[in-house]
């Protein structure tokens, strides 16, 4: 198995924020643009249902409720405070911000108070600018309001987790209350998607998958992987026709999306099986044994889930995100690791519940392209764009038919992996023609029927 997520007790974002020198604070304050000319940064970032495709309604959470409750204290408390003119007001919060300057000022104040490390603060600042620029490029008439509404909540969630880090278990259920992280993620990514230039391939097969889930059967989606926003993209394109799948899909996810402070709140809204990717298994030789034990725990959780039945699990057998060809700069699905495909297939076969494996193609790299090369360090730089995206599913491929037609078992396993990958590449090419070739629905092929059910 290629993708990975850590054991809760071992992997968590660094939350201790040491106090910093006044010179570094001064430098950072200037970079924020507070009290002077604001410095513009290049668009980059990281990273997900409402009938309105822009989702501009303001989200309330428990922290904001508590602030409102505090404002409505009994008169005896207010009169007591009025007798002491030296009582200072509570520090401003991200949820109180009404302007860009307000948001940046809160970041500055938290750095000065020693509650926010400079590197995380810089990431939060960059995240704001990148997201703002991308949403403004969408041309939506309420782009400024959308940015303020979504970024005030995003920065609040990021800061809250820095103060009290959430630890992911090997199998993580999406947190929907008291704060709905799923809806938060959907609202955040929605303004980045150009729905007029986005496409869903073979919605009839998605309906078929939903029926199998209703019958208690398991479904595995073998997929390519492009960005940290993949879960949101899949859910956004399915929510109008297949909301059950959109909200109940389980993602096999790498440890990076549950350790990076800027990414954790978005991951908290997804159902995750947390594993360590082979690509990062040896980043620190001292942690290899711990990572293997964590992966074993996640594997056991997956076995239990499949035995329950009616589960749909997404996995990228390539073990990481697609990246452009260094010479041609063209994007293409990364090759599959056949051993990962075989491991997943065996788990499905031995679950005691009927299971089906479908190839799923994703095209959304323009939204948040990954670094050109795999990086060891957490906190990579990301770009953000407003762009069309695509998701397509092809018919299930039956391994046993391939096995019965071949003499060599190893050859059958290799052929099965190749057929899944080939199907994804074919679907990917159709999505590419529709989105980048500007062919739209006309790009449909005999095997991929494109639709736009949200329009």
Count the E strands.
9
Which CATH-level-2 architecture of the largest domain? 3-Layer(aba) Sandwich
Stretches where pLDDT is under 50 for at least 5 consecutive residues are 1-25, 27-31, 33-88
The share of residues in helices is 40-55%
Provide the number of structural domains.
2
Distance between the termini: 38 Å
CATH topology of the largest domain: Glycerol-3-phosphate (1)-acyltransferase
What order do the strands of the largest sheet run in, or round the barrel if closed?
1-5-4-6-3-7-8-2-9
How large a portion of the residues is in β-strands, by DSSP E?
5-15%
Q: Give the full name of the CATH homologous superfamily of the largest domain.
A: Glycerol-3-phosphate (1)-acyltransferase
Can you tell me the CATH class of the largest domain?
Answer: Alpha Beta
Q: Structural class, from secondary structure content?
A: alpha/beta
Biggest sheet descriptor:
9 strands, mixed
Helix segment tally: 15
Give me the Rg, rounded: 23 Å
State the shape.
globular
Order of helices and strands: HHHHHHEHEHEHHEHEHEHEEHHE
Region (Disordered): 71-91
Function: Esterifies acyl-group from acyl-ACP to the sn-1 position of glycerol-3-phosphate. The enzyme from chilling-resistant plants discriminates against non-fluid palmitic acid and selects oleic acid whereas the enzyme from sensitive plants accepts both fatty acids.
Catalytic activity: sn-glycerol 3-phosphate + an acyl-CoA = a 1-acyl-sn-glycero-3-phosphate + CoA
Protein name: Glycerol-3-phosphate acyltransferase, chloroplastic
């Amino acid at each position: 198995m290629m993708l990975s997520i850590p054991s809760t007790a071992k992997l968590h974002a660094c939350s201790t924020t040491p106090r910093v020198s006044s010179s570094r604070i001064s430098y950072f304050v200037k970079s924020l643009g507070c009290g002077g000319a604001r410095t513009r940064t290049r668009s980059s970032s990281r990273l997900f249902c409402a009938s309105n495709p822009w989702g501009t309604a303001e989200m309330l959470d428990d922290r904001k409720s508590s602030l409102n409750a505090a404002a409505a204290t009994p008169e005896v408390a207010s009169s007591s405070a009025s007798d002491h003119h030296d009582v200072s007001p509570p520090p401003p919060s991200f949820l109180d911000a009404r302007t860009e300057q307000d948001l940046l000022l809160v970041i500055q104040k938290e750095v000065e108070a020693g509650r926010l490390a400079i590197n995380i603060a810089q990431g939060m600042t960059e995240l704001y600018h990148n997201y703002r620029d991308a949403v403004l490029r969408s041309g939506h008439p309420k782009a400024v309001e959308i940015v303020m509404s979504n970024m005030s909540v995003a920065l609040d969630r990021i800061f809250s987790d820095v103060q009290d880090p959430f630890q992911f278990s090997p199998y993580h259920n999406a947190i929907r209350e008291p704060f709905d992280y799923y809806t938060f993620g959907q609202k955040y990514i929605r303004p980045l998607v150009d729905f007029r230039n986005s496409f869903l391939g073979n919605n009839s097969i998605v309906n078929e998958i939903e029926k199998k889930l209703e019958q208690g059967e398991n479904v595995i989606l073998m997929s390519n992987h492009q960005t940290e926003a993949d879960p949101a993209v899949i859910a956004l394109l399915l929510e109008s026709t297949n909301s059950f799948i959109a909200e109940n899909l389980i993602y096999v996810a790498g440890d990076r999306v549950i350790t990076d402070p800027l990414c954790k709140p978005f991951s908290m809204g997804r159902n995750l099986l947390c594993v360590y990717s082979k690509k990062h298994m040896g980043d620190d030789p001292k942690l290899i044994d711990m990572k293997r034990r964590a992966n074993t725990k996640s594997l056991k959780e997956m076995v239990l889930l499949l035995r329950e039945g009616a589960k749909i699990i997404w996995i990228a057998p390539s073990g990481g995100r697609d990246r452009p060809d260094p010479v041609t700069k063209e994007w293409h699905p990364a090759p599959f690791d056949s051993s990962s495909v075989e491991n997943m297939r065996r788990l499905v076969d031995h679950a005691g519940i009927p299971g089906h494996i479908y190839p799923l193609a994703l095209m959304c790299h323009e939204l948040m392209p990954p670094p050109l090369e795999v990086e060891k360090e957490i906190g990579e730089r990301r770009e953000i764009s407003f762009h069309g995206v695509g998701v397509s599913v092809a018919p299930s491929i039956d391994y046993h038919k391939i096995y019965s037609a071949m003499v060599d078992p190893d050859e059958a396993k290799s052929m099965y992996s190749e057929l899944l990958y080939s199907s994804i590449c074919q679907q990917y090419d159709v999505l590419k023609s529709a989105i980048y070739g500007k062919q739209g629905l006309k790009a449909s092929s005999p095997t991929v029927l494109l639709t736009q059910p949200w329009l």
